[in-house]
Amino acid sequence: MHLRRVSRHNASSSYVYSAQIWSESAHRERKQHKNRRFSCNATGANSDEGAAIIDGKAIAQTVREEIGVEVASLKASTGKVPGLAVVLVGGRKDSETYVRSKKKGCEEAGIQSFGTDLPEDVTEEELLKVVADYNADPSVHGILVQLPLPDHINEENVLNAISIEKDVDGFHPLNMGLLAQRGREPFFVPCTPKGCVELLERSGIEISGKTAVVIGRSNIVGMPANLLLQRRDATVTVVHSRTPNAKEVTQQADIVIVACGRAEMVRGDWIKPGAAVIDVGINAVDDATKKRGYRLVGDACFDEIKPIAGAITPVPGGVGPMTIAMLLQNTLEGFKRTVSA
Ligand SMILES: Nc1nc(=O)c2c([nH]1)NC[C@@H]1CN(c3ccc(C(=O)N[C@@H](CCC(=O)O)C(=O)O)cc3)C=[N+]21
Ligand SMILES: [Mg+2]
Description:
One of its GO terms (biological process) is tetrahydrofolate interconversion. Belongs to the tetrahydrofolate dehydrogenase/cyclohydrolase family. There is one protein chain. With about 350 residues, this protein is α/β, with parallel strands linked by helices. About 40% of the residues lie in helices and about 15% in strands. The protein has eleven helices and 13 strands. The longest helix is centred in the first third of the chain and has 23 residues, at about 55-80. It starts with a strand and ends with a helix. The relative contact order is 0.18. It binds 5,10-Methenyltetrahydrofolate and magnesium ion. 5,10-Methenyltetrahydrofolate binds near residues 1, 101, 145, 191 and 323.
């Protein structure tokens, strides 16, 4: 994983590594937060009381098996399989890990995976050529350019170049615009927020008529999560780094989606008893007791929230695995549109 080091809590000897830097804007937001300090006294206790733990890993596995069954049956009837192209620029360890999981997910589901690994110093022009070739390739139904891209490449230009019919990340401005409009449907919905909603639905948590708070306003998670929840008739409030009363607003929520990119920022006293908490964050914290030297924590303080909430996703094993399952689902959806056309 590429892990950015930021000082954690008040203890100078421990660090948080944030693996969630997907975009320049997220990077800027994090800088603005730099002087804030939070502490969360993890007890390590894992009592049976309190929130139901939403097992994202198991739910993702179920989704992947469903996709595998459908892919096999479409292969039998059409002789074709879905194809996903993953473009990786540079050698970030976290990106390499995620790309490997995506390719493995494809293999298991019977989806053909294509990969292009480009050097860190590739020109924007060369990258755009790779995208154009995949746009033109009829055996490719989904194209994903792993983010973040190196600084010399304009991310917007690259996302704009992906065919909206193959934009399995749903990051193309046209797909985002369609998501934002009532009565219209994007070709693809971004994988992480889609995974959050799927976790709620598959856990039997009602969304319609409920009060939801989304913490974070990124293009990749917070903003589309807001739109998706509104489409399911939740009343949604988005809070962010400049919201003075984020805690008080969050205390009103039946559903909380946490995507602020700050380790354990959301504490137990932010959460209304019985609320559902979906934690999108992945942060690695130094931990000498662990073999790898760190452990992963979310943007929510799991041990404080568990006794209070009605349901909570763990990190790891919550939203992360669902993101990959939704990517495979989007690829299958793109493929189905081409075979039925
Ligand atoms: N164009 C693009 N699309 C993306 O969807 C995209 C991206 N760029 N850049 C990076 C982020 C991050 N991301 C994750 C996917 C899976 C896990 C995941 O499977 N996490 C596991 C394992 C965590 C671990 O061990 O590191 C878990 O939470 O249990 C996490 C994060 C997709 N992203
Ligand atoms: Mg934010």
